[in-house]
Amino acid sequence: EGSSEVPLLRVGWSVDFSHSQLGEDEFSYGFDGRGLKVENGKFEEFGESFGENDVIGCFADFEGAELVALSFSKNGQELGTAFTVPKEALGARALLPHVLCKGCAVELNFGQRPEPLAPVPDGFVFIHEVPVEQRVRTAPGPRSTEECEVLLMVGLPGSGKTLWAQKHSQENRDKRYNILGTELVLHQLRTRGPEPEEELDAKSRELLTQQAAQCLSKLVQIAPRARRNFILDQCNVYNSGQRRKLSAFKGFCRKVVVIVPPEPEWEQRLQQRRLREGDDVPDSVMLEMKANYSLPEKSEYVDEVVFGELGRDEAAPLVLRWKEEARKQLPPSEKRGNRRNNRNKRNRQNRNRGQGYVGGQRRGYDSRVYGGQQQPQYWGQPGNRGGYRNFYERYRGYDDRFYGRDYDYNRYRDYYRQYNREWQNYYQDRDRYYRNYYGYQGYR
């Protein structure tokens, strides 16, 4: 409610292990609210568009000798057959109801309601009325968190983490892994259609990436509450990030998968990623990831460590060399001042000047007149602790003693201005990349 984005709704049928994006892979058949039918990623015009308060009927006719006919209706008006599926190709696969929605809410009726929401064509019955022995149920999920597992991918950008996760998920379909990664969320955010996808400008692409990062961050937070198997497909090279994410999955079987390919192979994959996505990882971000790369060990929050390509004996020296080289090229670490600690430090340093507590008694500045004249108040209202006549005057004598009488603060500032600008640009690039790809919850 209140969103300017057009809602997405597809209804239809698919088989077990189909992707969540209805109609975008084999044996997945959907009727799109834009008046389209979609099968295996191919869109064609069909029927008419539908939206709020419309009732869509999905019908499967198995009485044909060789084909299964899939048809739809809108508000009781039949729209005709949309798909015909050869029974021989379908084999033992069962067709399952499938709904894909984005930005809308739906109500489903499988026959549990006393009256249908719209008229049903003659000869069709609701799934609820099909005898139990003729129904096919998908395999039940884990009954407790002890039966669930989470795989945490660890590796630099372009190392092949996503490819490994997808391959592992296909080879272990019975575990029904839910892959949580930025690329998957980005794919789900983009609404596909019959027209080729238009290229987004830099601003729109960055905004979409930020939205995907926020979605992914939220999904990772709520995942430990679901009894499912997960693969967290992010870089996760920081030890603090590995510990924080896996600690949330208490009770799960927690595994870490480290992907460290040979260096020439990794550079080739990184180049392919750059050409495919058109978005390169900033050098500053790559250097910081290398400098903080932490190979996980078995611990209280890690039950098993698996190396996907190079083994530990080969990967450890390579990672160590990356860390040493990156730390030499990185600028000084960013200072993140804590205001409260700094204030306490100043109080301790200046207690002889009247600040802080001395001898169990609070001492403050005398607000009374000095030399018979009322001094202007620079700090707070009259009657408080008073203030300095010139806040910076107290440092001038120190500067003159240390640097000499010809010390010029502006000249010192100009000398380092270029260095400060480069330092600030480095952290701005880094923070923008992490904000886009890891959300606002922090990248470590």
Automatic annotation (TrEMBL):
GO terms for molecular function: RNA binding. Pfam families: AAA_33 (PF13671), SPRY (PF00622). CDD domains: SPRY_hnRNP. Its main location: nucleus. One of its GO terms (biological process) is alternative mRNA splicing, via spliceosome. Keywords: Nucleus. It is found in: Nucleus. SMART domains: SPRY. Coiled coil: none annotated. InterPro entries: B30.2/SPRY, B30.2/SPRY_sf, ConA-like_dom_sf, P-loop_NTPase, SPRY_dom, SPRY_hnRNP_U. Residues 337-351 have a biased composition (Basic residues). The keyword Nucleus applies. This is B30.2/SPRY domain-containing protein. It comes from Junco hyemalis.
